[in-house]
Automatic annotation (TrEMBL):
Gene3D superfamilies: P-loop containing nucleotide triphosphate hydrolases
Keyword Ubl conjugation: no
Record-linked Pfam families: DEAD, Helicase_C, PIN-like_DDX60, WHD_DDX60
Protein name: Helicase, DEAD-box superfamily
């Protein structure tokens, strides 16, 4: 090997090890419905490594085909769109490492390619797109052209084995490098993990810079060498007759003929050759007639070792068959022949063993097999040139063999269980009852636990305590913060808000009162005559309103009076402003001042002013138009503009100006086509109403779709609304809230938001809108409840704003379900905002469970649902099962259009400060006299590649886009072709005066015509697309993205110059967001410093300032002396009043407010006209010290950062300042994309990221185009390759596939709900809803039995783990498991250690440091695990660093308990499959290949009927069992991967985790263990490889887990009657107050002290503790609790230090 090449190969591991590979959901987060590639050799290698077929003693080709099809079927079930691509020069990569028998893998590869290609061709005839292709090389021209025509989102590829001497690894990683250089992301297939409807894998993102290829010779570990190298084989032509032969038989006979007829045959012995060929043909006959289950019997223990000549014969047939299949002519003839395709099962090496043994023993076979054998031998003899006997050996007839089934046919047994609510649901599951056996190792633990329960009276009672002073202050401050926050949402000044006073309406109150009394009245005798008690008060006249009505009228009168005063003051203010504006000589300056006045007004002000300000703007534009035409002195083409429909309002006051009609008289004479003028220039100003009608229910004229929403809410129906951002969804939630508030004082509406930021915003908006008086103490209009904090009482409010996890906790809390007026029963409606989060990774399952369990009508809101039809159908079925009707409203049009640009920076001069010329504002970056060439417009249709046609429906075109598309169509097409494709005529398709609704209809017609063009065989579409692109890609190839860090700074400067701020910059890396803002801030500071140093103006200003300051200081000194002494010694000193009068009479100089250190306006993006400096400081000062100082200084320059790991107060400050208009540049991750009210003019996507998906793009871009402020939104892509931009724009939204919603912890929590609520009807109804309704992921009647079996064996697991009694009562440590539900399935591993007494024995050690270190080690193996590769880089780091990189092995005792737990779980769920098979599949044979749906073998046995029926009860797939494996499984993963294809078994729902190194080869990162030892953030980033932006989240998850364990143990040992489901929320980690809040260290409700109380005793050995009934208080479970508290405190202390 050359030295240079050796060096390059040494660089390859280093390059690959430094790549960042986040673990993502490839389906939901990345691909969705978009196409991706699967590298074929990688696919084969991975599948055959996961489930190795027998390629040694036997040759189980069908097993190999099956596992590949199963992988592809898993993708197909999840709605994936993929192609499979093989490369001939990489064919040797399909062989797993150190496997041998390369020719068998090559044969399997060729068969799989031919088999999948045939299936793809059949699907293509039915309109499917997927393809299976084979290219010569990854660097070949054909593959390059293929990639150009397909918008690939990623490539699934193997990355080899982590070992220095593995050559295949070098080739795999060179392949990855080659793909990434082409701009393709790469997902690692050998690290892929299936979880419900998702597929998780590390994803290598596109390289940030151009990387040179790393060449390597194609030297493989297992190169294929043919058996016939050097021989002259005579390939036999295809058999012509007989025609009835299958493809397998044709190939087999042809291969045998080739061997027999070759002149240099290696099989000279004719007798051995004849015997071998007869055995092979007999094996083909058996394949044709037997079942898969019979083959399991035949290929089992009856194998014999083949003689070398027969081994060579089988290899010769295999290799000749391989050569035949690779001949194009032979394969084509097979494909065109009318014969059965069965090459997927062409050879069974083990069966060949059996047939050869049968021949030698003369064992008889059934007649059908013998006849087929005779037929095949005759065909062979007729075509061969050699002399073979035409007679077959005589076989002895033997009776049908009876087979003693080795499988256990006994009925599956289970522990006894019965529950009144579940018995009916589980009645179909019939199990044999066995006796319960108590685990002796757990007896002592449970004895200790029962001790604490039995002595609960000796413990302090858990009574509600009065909040202390500081706790009340914290709550008051939170409420005040929300009120202040709400002011920014309503354009209120300062902290003044004017909410609407809500009074319960009489009809609603009467109805509620009757409902409350109905139970009492119904119990009494209706015929009983009751005495009437006459009141002493006179009766109220019928027409006199009651007290409630009078209060309602009074409230309305007060509101009307306030509104009237507000209108009068607004009109007066405008009149004064207008007079000042008219004094301005410049018309443009007048226009800008009037526009600024309009934008600063609230909605109420707009109503008061009517259209007067707009009319004044038109008046100024008319004057500007007249002046421009006079200056131009040109003649315009005459055009008659039609009369415009004008709605005349009822103006009640005198206008403040005189309108100049003369300037508009000649406006008709403008251009040749008024329709095109509107489409090209006036689209943002068009009428945007859609059948609007006045409606008294809302203070605006709703569109038709909004009226449907109002009607649905009034009818108390459930509602699904799908509408884009800014379309007008906001009113829906608040209308429903107001109805609940007006109905009664008890009804509850729950608003579920996906993020805490959105929770804060919604609560603030509610506080700003509504206020209400209550008679009861503790009642409120609104409350916030998240895992981190709460504001006001969650169960005492009427509008609860929360996150999904908390609502689930509340609904599962027994105290909220018991009683006639229980909180859960008072819920009237639940609003699910951003309901598409049901498809998310972590929380999606909670969303689905809540939708299934919701006890009332729901409102589901979303802007981005990729499959609205199936989702609506599922949700409708769920609601119908509860007696509710679901109304669906879909509105597809945004209020303001979005215009997309690519930023292409040009050469520029050094930055000298911000400048903005005073020009008329234009909506888009490419409009006006000063259009910026750096912003290149991207037409949406130009983003459609030829293979992305299905995305056409998802594209949104503005009027200008439609016009340009229509023009390009007419340029390219002839009139006849335009008519043929249905291109609409502009003059007839649109009216004279065009509205937004007209454009939408025209857009739909254009899309239909474009779709017909795209489907035509001509290349017309490509020509249209090329002209829309406005550039020639061939002549001007796209340069590589500029990675200059200052690029984003220049972009923001250009946006400022074009008045396109405020802007949100989305960058999907938390640390990267901070780097961007810090860089922009530093550029401003440096530029300001340089300007100050060189500016004469600044030097003069500072000189004057210093002179003033010196003079002012002298004057102040003199004044002080005079005050103290007077002018003479005998004078009397000045009084206080005299001093104040003197100070008031002194004229204040402008220098008094001058601060030379404040940012200069030209070096700051802040808009100082929106807020005074004092207002800004009120918001900024409380955040001082909680974030870095530069972040505070950046706020003062108009720059902010927003991501989830930042302090909550800082994030809210950013939101408020941005909404108020002071901050004008915010860099954020996706935290601002989900519904946060931070609208802006421009959205920038900075840098390509794997997380910039279709979903995130739609969500984030929806922030642009502020309704009521901006007529258009601008979207800018910066430092993203053009192809990637096109992919993002044309990508379709992913469908909502849901997840498997039944987890073991959920089953346990449901039993807790039933037991704690005494099986009340509400709890029983919720349980039935969750367990029996259709699932989004696993729906349909066919899945009902799967769900029932899963629930029953989850119960069996809970019973055997001593978590559930036979009567369904949660026992022992059930509450701990329930509290740790968010750590499923790791919580069950933790429970196995707790149950097994491991922590009890560990904490008995008197060395606390040793105990805590071992606890961290064990917990690191269970919770928050992070995989790590043992590559060269990590091994070297572990060798040279003091850090622990690879997690050390578990302690032996802990390992033993965890492995024992996994084996017990494996046994339970193996029985689950057995039970399911016995109940549902006794007469069903698993004989279908899952991807191609091909039937294999016969359905009825031909000979060994007993063997077939016995094997039918097997758990393992018969395809995989062909390799000699039985039902002896070693791991849960093996069970799930090899289970029968007709059995649903979700691995992620089985309560176990793989334990290294017993269950998995995957090692784990020691970052938690390492951090506990050294407490260094930098070391985690440098040595453990944790990205800086992820460290906080990972450490916080572990801290939260520790806190939950502590709270659970505390509640458990308290043994109180408190609601355990909610009680754990009372014990929060100091780090849980909010993301990044590390300064306070206390919880909201004053319970942090209670949590930490056991740590008040410093001695570890428990000396001095009292005893209770002979049990030492310092031993057993109490000692375990103290150890966890001390561990949490030490861990959090280190956490605070690194994050302070």
């Amino acid at each position: 090997m050359a030295p240079q090449q050796a060096k390059e190969e040494e660089d390859l591991p280093s390059w690959y090890a430094n790549l960042w590979a986040p673990r993502v959901d490839l389906i939901g987060d990345i691909a969705g419905k978009e196409p991706f590639l699967i590298h074929g050799e990688s696919l084969m290698r991975h599948c055959l490594e996961e489930s190795p077929p027998d390629f040694q003693d036997g040759f189980q080709l069908l097993h190999a085909v099956y596992v590949v099809e199963r992988f592809l079927s898993n993708l197909q079930k999840r709605g994936c769109d993929f192609d499979v691509v093989f490369f001939r020069d990489l064919r040797d990569l399909c062989v797993p490492h150190l496997s041998g028998f390369e020719y068998k893998y090559q044969y399997a590869r060729t068969v799989i390619i031919k088999h999948l290609q045939r299936h793809a061709e059949e699907n293509a005839r039915n309109g499917a797109r997927a393809a299976v292709l084979e290219f010569e090389s990854v660097d070949g021209r054909e593959f390059h052209e293929y990639l150009e025509g397909l918008p690939i989102h990623f490539v699934l590829c193997h990355d080899g084995v982590e070992s220095e001497d593995v050559k295949d690894t070098i080739i795999f990683r060179n392949l990855i490098c080659s793909l990434m250089r082409r701009g393709k992301n790469v997902a690692i297939i050998n690290a892929l993990e299936w979880k419900s409807s998702k597929a998780y894998a590390p994803l290598l993102s596109i390289l940030p810079k151009e990387v040179q290829p790393i060449p390597a010779e194609l030297e493989f570990d297992s190169p294929y060498t043919s058996f016939f190298d050097g021989m002259d084989l005579c390939i036999q032509p295809r058999l012509v007759v007989p025609q009835e032969l299958t493809a397998r038989e044709r190939l087999g006979i042809t291969a045998c003929l080739t061997l027999a007829n070759s002149p240099e045959s290696a099989f000279a012995d004719l007798d051995h050759l004849q015997e071998g060929i007869q055995a092979f043909l007999l094996h083909l006959a058996v394949l044709k007639h037997c079942t898969l289950l019979e083959r399991q019997h035949w290929v089992g223990a009856r194998r014999s070792i083949l003689a070398p000549e027969h081994q060579n014969l089988l290899r010769g047939i295999t290799e000749v068959s391989l050569l035949l299949m690779e001949k194009y002519e032979w394969t084509t003839s097979i494909n065109t022949a009318e014969c059965t395709w069965d090459l997927y099962d062409a050879i069974d090496g083990s069966l060949f063993h059996f047939t050869l043994a049968s021949l030698r023993s003369c064992q008889g076979l059934p007649d059908p097999i013998f006849q087929s054998w005779q037929h095949l031998w005759s065909a062979f003899c007729a075509a061969t040139d050699r002399q073979f006997s035409e007679r077959l050996p005589k076989l002895v007839d033997i009776p049908t063999e009876t087979f003693s089934d080795h499988l256990d046919k006994s009925q599956v047994s289970a522990l006894p269980f019965s529950h009144p609510v579940l018995d009916a649901f589980l009645k179909d599951i019939r199990l044999k009852v066995t006796q319960d056996t108590q685990d002796t190792s757990a007896q002592s633990v449970f004895k200790d636990l029962h001790h604490w329960h039995n002595t609960k009276l000796l413990l302090p009672p858990n009574k509600p305590q009065k909040l202390g002073f500081f706790a009340r202050r914290r709550i008051q401050k939170r409420v005040a913060d929300i009120v202040a926050y709400s002011a920014s949402l309503t354009n209120a000044r300062g902290k003044l808000i004017e909410p609407e006073s809500i009074v319960v309406k009489k009809a609603a109150a009467t109805h509620a009162s009757r409902n409350k009394k109905s139970s009492t009245e119904s119990s009494s005798n209706s015929t009983q005559i009751r005495p009437q008690h006459h009141s002493k008060k006179p009766a109220r006249p019928a027409n006199k309103p009651g007290g409630r009505e009078r209060a309602l009228r009074a409230a309305q009168e007060v509101q009307e009076r306030k509104a009237s005063d507000k209108r009068d003051s607004t009109v007066t203010l405008w009149a004064d402003t207008c007079r000042e504006i008219e004094k301005e000589p410049s018309l443009i300056a007048r226009y800008l001042k009037a526009l600024r006045f309009l934008n600063d007004r609230s909605k109420v002000d707009h109503v008061a002013l009517g259209s007067e300000v707009h009319l004044y703007l038109c008046h100024l534009l008319g004057k500007l138009w007249a002046k421009a035409r006079k200056d131009a002195n040109t003649r315009a083409v005459c055009l008659e503009i039609p009369d415009l429909p004008i709605t005349i309002g009822n103006q009640t006051h005198q206008m403040s100006f005189e309108f100049d009609y003369g300037a508009l008289k000649d406006m008709k004479k403008t251009m040749a086509n008024f329709q095109q003028m509107q489409l090209e220039f006036a689209a943002p100003y068009m009428d945007r109403r859609f059948d609007s009608q006045p409606d008294t229910r809302v203070p605006f004229d709703p569109d038709a779709w909004q009226i449907r929403v109002l009607n649905s809410i009034d009818a108390n129906n459930s509602l699904l609304v799908i509408a884009p951002t800014s379309a007008g969804k906001t009113f829906i939630s608040f209308y429903a809230m107001k109805k609940v508030l007006e109905e009664s004082d008890d009804g509850v509406l729950v608003y579920v938001a996906p993020t805490k930021a959105l929770v804060n915003q919604i609560a603030a908006e509610v506080a700003a809108r509504y206020t209400k008086s209550y008679k009861q103490d503790g009642k409120s209009v609104w409350a916030i409840y998240t895992r981190d904090y709460r504001v006001q009482s969650p169960t005492g409010c009427q509008i609860l704003v929360t996150v999904p996890h908390i609502l689930q906790i509340l609904l599962l809390a027994p105290t909220n379900a018991k009683g006639p007026n229980a909180w859960s029963k008072r819920i009237k409606r639940i609003i699910f905002d951003e309901v598409h989060c049901i498809g998310q990774d972590d929380d999606g399952i909670i969303w689905e469970q809540l939708l299934l369990a919701a006890p009332c009508p729901v409102i589901a809101l979303s802007a981005t649902i990729g499959n609205p039809g199936p989702f609506q159908e599922w949700l409708s079925q769920v609601q119908r099962s509860k007696g509710l009707k679901l109304d669906t409203v879909v509105h597809t049009t945004r209020y303001s259009d979005l215009r997309k640009f690519i930023y292409t920076p040009q050469g520029r001069e050094p930055f000298q400060g911000l400048r903005r010329n005073k020009t008329l504002p234009v909506p888009g970056l490419d409009e006006g006299d000063r259009a910026c060439p750096e912003f290149e417009f991207v037409h949406p249709v130009a983003a459609l590649t030829d293979r992305a046609r299905t995305a056409l429906d998802d594209l949104s075109l503005e009027a200008r886009d439609c016009l340009s598309l229509w023009r390009r169509m007419n340029e390219v097409l002839s009139k006849e072709d335009a008519a043929k494709f249905g291109v609409p005529d502009l003059s007839t398709a649109l009216p004279d005066v065009i509205s937004k609704a007209d454009v939408i209809r025209w857009e739909a017609d254009l899309k239909q015509a474009l779709r017909r063009i795209m489907e035509s065989p001509d290349k017309v579409f490509q020509e249209i697309r090329k002209r829309l692109e406005m550039r020639s890609v061939e002549e001007n190839p796209d340069p590589a993205p500029i990675q200059d860090k200052s690029n984003i700074f220049h972009l923001v400067v250009d946006l400022h110059r074009h008045d396109a701020l405020p802007a949100l910059i989305f960058h999907y890396d938390t640390h990267g967001c901070e780097r961007i803002v810090k860089m922009i801030f530093a550029n401003l500071v440096v530029a300001e410093g340089k300007w100050k140093e060189s500016s004469i103006e600044w030097a003069k200003k500072m000189e004057d300032f210093e002179a003033w300051r010196k003079t002012a200081s002298m004057q102040q000194t003199l004044i002080i002396r005079q005050r103290n002494r007077g002018k003479n010694r005998d004078d009397v000193r000045m009084s206080q009043d005299e001093r104040l009068r003197e100070e008031a009479s002194v004229e204040i100089s402008h220098w008094a407010s001058f601060d030379p250190d404040e940012p200069l306006e030209r070096f700051s993006f802040a808009d100082t006209t929106k807020m005074q400096a004092s207002e800004v400081e009120v918001i900024v000062q409380p955040v001082q010290g909680q974030v870095a100082d530069w972040m505070i200084d950046a706020l003062r320059r108009g720059l902010g950062v927003h991501h989830s790991s930042l302090n909550r107060e800082y994030r809210q400050a950013v939101e408020v300042l941005f909404r108020r208009g002071y901050l004008r540049v915010v860099v954020a991750t996706g935290t601002l994309a989900l519904g946060i009210n931070m609208p802006c003019k421009t959205v920038v996507f900075q840098g390509s990221s794997v997380f910039l998906t279709a979903q995130n793009f739609r969500q984030a871009s929806g922030r642009a185009g502020r309704r009521g402020f901006d007529l258009l939104g601008n979207i800018v892509f910066n430092q993203i390759p053009r192809k990637r931009v096109y992919e993002i724009m044309s990508a379709r939204l992913p469908g909502l596939n849901g997840q498997f919603p039944i987890s073991t912890t959920l089953v346990l929590r449901l039993f807790s709900l039933l037991h704690g609520s005494d099986n009340c009807e509400f709890a029983a109804s919720m349980v039935r809803s969750l367990l029996s309704q259709t699932r989004l992921y696993l729906g349909g009647p066919e899945s009902e039995m799967s769900i029932k079996h899963h629930v029953r064996f989850s119960i069996e697991y809970l019973r055997r783990q001593d978590l559930l009694s036979a009567a369904g009562v949660p026992i022992n440590f059930a509450s701990i498991v329930g509290h740790l539900y968010f750590m499923e399935n790791a919580v069950f591993a933790f429970h196995s250690l707790l149950r097994g007494g491991y922590f009890h024995r560990l904490c008995a050690d008197t060395n606390p440091d040793r105990v805590l270190l071992e606890m961290v080690l064990v917990l690191s193996h269970i919770f928050c695990r992070l995989p790590i590769k043992r590559n060269q880089k990590n091994v070297e780091t572990a060798r040279t660093s003091s850090s622990v990189i690879f997690l050390p092995p578990l302690p032996k005792e802990a390992e033993r308990l965890l492995i024992q737990h996994n084996q017990e779980t494996l046994s339970i769920f193996k029985n689950y499959v057995k039970s399911y098979v016995s109940h549902n599949l006794t007469n069903t044979r698993d004989r279908i290949l899952p991807f191609t749906q091909t039937l294999v073998g016969q359905d009825e046995p031909v000979h060994w009927a007993s063997a077939d029926s016995g094997a039918a009860a097997m758990v393992r797939s018969p395809f995989i069992a062909l390799s000699g494996t039985t039902d002896n499984f070693t791991t849960i993963h093996e069970l799930c991967q090899t289970v029968r294809g007709d059995v649903f078994l979700e691995e992620s729902a089985i309560p176990t985790i793989p334990i290294w190194p017993h269950d998995t080869r995957q090692e784990f990162n020691a970052y938690l263990y390492d951090f506990y030892k050294h407490g260094s953030l930098d070391v985690l980033v440098r040595d453990n490889g944790i990205r800086r932006g992820e460290v906080w989240f990972r450490l916080k998850d572990f801290s939260r887990t520790l806190s939950t364990i502590i709270s659970s143990l505390t509640v458990l040992m308290d043994a109180s009657d408190a609601d355990a489901e909610e009680a754990c929320e009372e014990f929060e980690s100091p780090l849980d107050n909010e993301a990044g809040t590390t300064s306070s260290g206390s919880s909201d409700d004053g319970t942090a002290e209670a949590t930490s109380s056991p740590t008040s005793v410093d001695d570890w050995d428990g000396a001095g503790y009292a005893t209770l009934d002979g049990h030492a208080k310092g031993t057993g479970l109490y000692r375990v609790l103290r150890a966890f508290i001390r561990l949490r405190d030490e861990f959090d202390e280190k956490f605070r230090k690194v994050w302070s």
